[in-house]
Amino acid sequence: MFHPLSPNGTVHYSNMAALQRSFSAARSQVCVLRSLQSCKQYRGQRWVRPLALQQRGYRAAVCHKIKAPMEVGDLPSVEKIPKGMVKVAVHSTGINFADILMVAGAYQERPELPFVPGFEMAGEVMAVGEGVTAFKEGHRVVGLLQPPGSYAEECLANEKMLFHMPDSVTYTTAAAVPVSYGTALLGLTRRANLQPGETVLVTAAAGALGTAVVDLAAHALGATVIGGAGSQEKCEFVSSRGAQHTIDYSQDSIKDRVKVITQGRGCDVAFDGVGGKVFEDCLKCLAWEGRMLVAGFSGGDIPKIPANLLLVKNISAAGLYWGKYAMKNIGVLRQTVKDTLTLMEEGKIKGPPQPTTFKLEQVNEAFKFIMDRKSTGKVVLEIR
After folding, report:
1. By CB neighbour count within 10 A (0-12 exposed, 13-18 middle, 19+ buried), where does 267 fall?
2. In the β-sheet with 224-229, what is the strand arrangement from edge to edge?
3. Is 168 exposed, middle or buried (0-12, 13-18, 19+ CB in 10 A)?
4. 239: number of CA atoms within 13 Å, CB side?
5. Burial degree of 96 (CB within 10 A; 0-12, 13-18, 19+)
6. Cα dihedral 229, 232, 236, 241 in deg (nearest 10)
7. Distance from C-alpha of 130 to C-alpha of 163, rounded to nearest angstrom
8. 208-215 and 232-240 helices, crossing angle to 10°
9. Is residue 237's pLDDT more than 50?
């Protein structure tokens, strides 16, 4: 949820009303979902909309139970748009690993059941609430949701979390941008302070976040990129995205390959979202005054950092939780998305590779596709 913070981080009392309205809108959505849960009917394995709710509505993928398959059903459409909010007809929504963790009950934030997952989407403005000036009906937008809710034909988004889409970008491509590219750009610049000519090692480089890191580091920031992936096929894909060197860590030692590539010097930045042994190997690959970025633990194991390694090589380790900036410093988060869209429009980066797409009804299959490590780049649900 967007918090109207002052420059020094304290909440202005004059903005508390706006904050309360945002929370009220979120609570309304939760109440609707709970009412659906209480009157949900089944015919075999199919969720049938109760007669009392057979009115104008929209379809959504709903998580009713942790670690259980999501169900696609109907929800009533919101007719009165809260102040500062925008109602969007969702065309495409990106799937992030955070969504998978959230549905499994393993994410650091746990919404109350039932809930609609999804943090990012691209679509068309249907209506706007009082006070919204930057958007109007018919505008093509890409944006972020907090709390989640983009696995649906309609959603409510805070005006401050929406961006105008460049005319040259499709809904499918736009839905693959905010989280992956925002995280990548923030990590490389604000957290790691990557400089032109430096070397960055990227793990899971064929994934949604990894391809964004490779693209930005190689094409916008002037770095030498070493991309690590779990197969030769994926390494070839990473090379096509701009990496000058690759490591197939299902076959080769990360530490040995980095040593050869850098002629014994090591890499300046390691950008890791895997964790476990991969993280430990990356840490050992860093050069003097290297920077280690902790972006996630898709491998399932949360590593411990041996502080002696940080000491002897003057290494720094930094966490990277991009989404938290929506609450702590919305301006920083917005800038990463705006800068990415500008770089795409100016042709200075490649942008996301063509996403793998699934229909809304295939949301559970899409999750399995990612968990089985079959994806390269982003996986997107096509809603309309």
Report:
1. buried
2. 245-248, 224-229, 199-202, 267-272, 286-294, 316-319
3. exposed
4. 10
5. buried
6. -10
7. 18
8. 40
9. yes
| This model's pTM is above 0.90 | no
Token pair for 2: 């967007």
Task: Enumerate residues 6+ apart whose C-beta is below 8 A from 97.
Answer: 208, 273, 296, 298, 370
12-48 pLDDT, tens digit per residue, is 323 334 434 443 444 444 444 444 444 444 333 333 4
Give the SS3 label for residue 208: helix
Rounded to an integer, what distance in angstroms lies between the CA atom of residue 332 and that of residue 177?
Answer: 16
Structure tokens at 290: 């290297």
Condensed to tens digits (0 to 9), the pLDDT of residues 146-168 reads: 899 999 999 999 999 999 999 99
Query: Is 63 strand, coil or helix?
Result: strand
